[in-house]
Amino acid sequence: MLDILTPQMAKLFWDALGQTFYMVAVSGLIGTLIGLPLGVFLATSQRGELFAAPALNAAIGLVVNAARSTPFIILVVAIVPLTRLIAGTSIGTAAAIVPLTIAAAPFIARIIEGAIRGVDQGLIEAARSVGASPIQIVQKVLLPEALPAITLGLTLTVVSLIGYSAMVGAVGGGGLGDLGIRFGYQRFMPDVMLAVVLVLIVIVQGVQSLGDYLARRFDKRSRH
Amino acid sequence: MSDHKNSAVTEAAAIRLENVEKTYAARGDNGAVTALHSVDLAVPEGNILGVIGKSGAGKSTLIRLVNGLERPTTGRVIVHGTDIAALSERDLRDQRRSIGMIFQHFNLLSRRTAFNNVALPLEIAGLSKAEIRKRVLPLLDLVGLADKADRYPAELSGGQKQRVGIARALATNPRVLLSDEATSALDPETTAQILALLKKVNAELNLTVLLITHEMSVIKAVADRVAVIDGGRIVEDGETYDVFTHPRHATTRRFVSELTGTALPDHLLARIGPIPAPDKRALIQLTFKGEGANQPWLSILTRKLDMDLGIIQAKVDHIAGKPFGTLVVSAAAGRDQLVALQREAATLGLETEVLGYA
């Protein structure tokens, strides 16, 4: 364990932690910005629903499924031209955010869709009966009522992104997973690998606990 | 049927359905389903009209036509002079603010307090926070929940949740209230309280109420008028008291017998026959209503005809505030005596029916 107590190693750890945080935060945020409206649309656009557009619903569903069935590591290399277009480079932490976001958005869309579909249809009917427009129903009924489920879903997304971010070392994305592979595996420093895994366990545990806590806070369906 | 309807139409009808038909298009393996067949119905201003029917009779569809949650396939749905069926979705949303609705499962937003649930229609209408506050607090007071404003639905009982539902439905000052099985999920005592509240808002706010239910007791407790729906058709409608005391359609009779309990017990039904015999007694059903119910007619009959009557079954009820009852008596009587009994009973305002001999 002494190897990792050097100042150099501490700095590597600190930088890797920052890169992981940066990649997960930015891809999670942009992924949510894209996935949220997509998820709302998927949940409300089948036949007879608020924004009924069955053909578009099916088309978007297809794209979402295609993106979700592509293995992440293949996605990373397959979209290099797109990455270069958006990030200006295909290597580095910023570049890694592109595939992470593209993986996160459809995942989040499905999570939002599921959470909204879990909202009682009777609430939509009640809102319609007081004169709510479809947009108002989304704002005042669907999203607030689905918030506990959305919170748990986004927690799951963040945990998955932390896992995915370990793979973007392949394009020089950095981060904790990359540190573990390069030092722990390729340079035979098992204690670095172990330390990386321990830190990741702590982070995931923390994220999950925070998510669970917030979801419980948001959920008013049971007596407290 | 037609004469009742005409009398309703002569008063100002707040809600009128004219020759409404609703057919759900075929989907997949299911063929087209007609939920409502040429329905005509009028709810006079300020009245409470109850539509009673079994599940699947079409009552849910019917009530949803009135605020445009469903649109008719043909026919007109007129609420205070506006044809709901002809409105655009946008105009319909404005119109819905004058038509409140309450639901069997309350349909309250779980993450809003009682106050904020009542505030929802006002937020949607674009009122300011101050205006909303000024409107919501008296409404919570009206439904008896002033002290529960900050409670979430999960912290309220079923009856309290429905009170919030009623306050929400009244938030935009509607002139019509639709009640979709509003008491079906409640226990009898809470049901009585909610019905009393409906009656109160009906009287105090001159609100026209259209309610649907499968329970005769609900109709009996609050409805001025009743319409019986069966297989998507209104089979009978009129003043509640008239319909109950003179049920004409088989479905109505079934609902009425459920309430008045005029069905004979099984052991008698097994023995009863249509042919008189010396060892058998006649079973006669006497129906009394209105003023007749208050007379000492049973002792008048026995004294006048010198007959001994045994009581088999009796039930007196009050519908729309008027007494109504049935009595089944047994008599060792020949044909002449029965005729005399029927004649005497008629002069006292009673209806008689010889059920058979047992």
- Which strand order do you get reading across the main beta sheet of chain B? 6-7-8-3-9-10
Radius of gyration of chain B: 24 Å
> Biggest β-sheet of chain B: count, sense, barrel?
6 strands, mixed
In N-to-C order, the SSE pattern of chain B is HEEEHEEHEHHHEHEHEEHHHEHEEHE
The greatest interface between two protein chains, and residues involved on each side, is:
A-B, 24 and 32 residues
Secondary-structure-derived class of chain B: alpha/beta
Largest sheet of chain A: none
So what's the CATH class of the largest domain in chain B? Answer: Alpha Beta
Mean pLDDT of chain A: 91
Looking at the structure, the CATH topology of the largest domain in chain B is Rossmann fold
By helix and strand content of chain A, what is the structural category? mainly alpha
Tally of domains of chain A: 1
How do the strands and helices of this protein lay out in sequence?
The complex is a heterodimer of chains A (224) and B (358).
Chain A: H1 7-44, H2 54-69, H3 72-78, H4 80-87, H5 93-117, H6 121-129, H7 134-165, H8 176-185, H9 190-218
Helix pairs in contact in A: 1-5, 1-7, 1-8, 2-5, 4-5, 5-7, 6-7, 7-9, 8-9
Chain B: H1 2-10, E1 13-24, E2 33-44, E3 48-52, H2 59-66, E4 74-79, E5 82-83, H3 89-96, E6 99-103, H4 114-124, H5 129-142, H6 158-170, E7 176-180, H7 188-204, E8 208-213, H8 216-222, E9 225-230, E10 233-239, H9 240-245, H10 250-260, H11 266-271, E11 282-289, H12 297-305, E12 309-319, E13 322-331, H13 335-347, E14 351-357
Parallel strand pairs in B: 3-8, 3-9, 6-7, 7-8
Antiparallel strand pairs in B: 1-2, 1-4, 4-5, 9-10, 11-13, 11-14, 12-13
Helix pairs in contact in B: 4-5, 4-6, 5-6, 6-7
Question: Can you walk me through this structure?
Answer:
The complex is a heterodimer of chains A (224) and B (358). With 224 residues, chain A is mainly α. Chain A has a single domain (2-218), classed as MetI-like (MetI-like fold, Orthogonal Bundle), CATH 1.10.3720.10. Chain A contains nine helices and no strands. Chain A is elongated. Chain B is 37% helix and 28% strand. Chain B has 13 helices and 14 strands. With 358 residues, chain B is α/β, with parallel strands linked by helices. Chain B folds into two domains: 2-98 and 174-259, P-loop containing nucleotide triphosphate hydrolases (Rossmann fold), CATH 3.40.50.300; 261-357, ACT domain (Alpha-Beta Plaits). At the A-B interface, α6 and α7 of A face α3, β6 and α4 of B. Chain B: This is Cell division ATP-binding protein FtsE.
